[in-house]
Amino acid sequence: MAEVDTQVRKLKNFVNGEWVESKTATYEDVYNPATKEVVAQVPLSTKEEVDQATEIAQKAFEEWKNVPVQKRARILFNYQQLLQQNQDELARLITIENGKNTNEALGEVGRGIENVEFAAGAPTLMMGDSLPNIATDMEATNYRYPIGVVGGITPFNFPMMVPCWMFPMAIAMGNAFVLKPSEKTPLLTEKLADLLNEAGLPKGVFNIVYGAHDVVNGILDHPEIKAISFVGSKPVGEYVYKRGSENLKRVQALTGAKNHTTVLNDADLDQAVKDTIASAFGSAGERCMACSVVTVEDGVADDFIAKLKEAADNVKMGNGMDDGVFLGPVIREENKQRTLDYIETGEKEGAKLVRDGRKDENEDGYFVGPTIFEGVSTDMKIWQDEIFAPVLSVIRVSHLKEAVEVANQSEFANGACLFTSNASSIRYFRENIDAGMMGINLGVPAPMAFFPFSGWKSSFYGTLHANGKDSVDFYTRKKVVTARYKTPDFE
Ligand code: NAD
């Protein structure tokens, strides 16, 4: 933590459509993880600043909810255009603050834009239902209304996509929004806010309060915040879900993961290797949909592991801005240290290091190379914990049933993938695997904006997931009107 008095640019909060200096005395350095350079300082704002932003948002909500839905949608259409026009700059900011390579950053921008496109369908999405004849002369209609001010709390690993899971749909439905981005990756959200202004969003509908746990607690406790969307780690998600629910709010908390991929004897092995490398080591393994464990059938295990190692040896690590770089840094020094500790733990637990990423260590930034263990078992910490780094475990299995049994022992159940050419195996996997998102012959089964992001078990707390129709339900409340209209007497 640094003093306020410094040459590095200090970020401001975004309240009522303007950038306002935080009243806090505490700022935290924001790093480029590929260079360790301090690129900005983020205020750790106070609870009072959450109160002020929420008050503004509440006032803005009173007007915004009455703006006709198609006019709200039109602002999102403008926003979509602006995001497209600025995609290179948005991607550049993601690479600077998060470290993922330019292609992945551009992919993330595209995913964020999809959410805006989906939310721009608000006039259709907000339609209710009605039944004209529920009894003699009686009808019932179900109307949808916004719920008020929504709070969003987001992680460092998708600075654009994850906030876009939340605020475009929330505001399209007529709510106002207070966002607390990750203090590790706040830069991108500045641009998101500026472009919302440019798109014509009325002041106060979207606000940002930068900070850490004080801001989160401010959001969790404020009586005028009616719903909370959280994405982050399991312990924090559990805390947010409990405290938010105790305060009688709607909460959706998308949390950690330990995603299993199964490779069967009849799989296209080259495809499985290519997709597993991209899934396990893309974004430095810092994805909630990253493959962390491969269960591979005995018949192809030797071949698969050899090919995997060869492909991992060819991964180019470095600054995500540089041509051809695939693997960027992890986010901070402590994440790197934690990763190195896990590699040591894996060795002590008796797993065999097929590829040791420690040898690629590079002091320019927080780099750890692709690491692969085999001979991993479910009593090991490297199998149980979400490592959230480029570390992959491989487990040999005799058949698909055993692979499913291994995966289902995990407390997490976000995504799971299967590589096979057999339809019956696919059906068996679909019917038996504990996972809310499943991929067949692909590595990252992250659903598009119009489907729910539907983790199970400890990967999600709540009822309605982010995205898809769930998000429409989460950001609206319903009013069912039952009415009697006596048939006119024409006699
Ligand atoms: P994190 O839980 O550390 O932080 C998430 C948010 O919570 C941040 O805004 C942070 O400031 C806040 N926070 C952190 N500690 C807090 C505390 N003690 N009290 C109150 N607020 C606190 O997560 P992260 O490291 O930024 O992100 C990585 C995690 O996010 C991984 O576990 C990953 O699996 C998860 N994630 C899940 C999904 C999903 O869809 N399930 C998507 C992306 C990331």
UniProtKB/TrEMBL annotation:
It comes from the Bacteria. The active site is at C288. Keywords: NAD, Oxidoreductase. SUPFAM superfamilies: ALDH-like. NAD(+) binds at F156, K180, E183, K184, T255, E386. It holds the Pfam family Aldedh. It catalyses: 3-oxopropanoate + NAD(+) + CoA + H2O = hydrogencarbonate + acetyl-CoA + NADH + H(+); 2-methyl-3-oxopropanoate + NAD(+) + CoA + H2O = propanoyl-CoA + hydrogencarbonate + NADH + H(+). The keyword NAD applies. Pathway: Polyol metabolism; myo-inositol degradation into acetyl-CoA; acetyl-CoA from myo-inositol: step 7/7. Its EC number is 1.2.1.27. NCBIfam families: MMSDH. Homotetramer. This is Malonate-semialdehyde dehydrogenase. It comes from Lentibacillus salinarum. The gene is iolA.
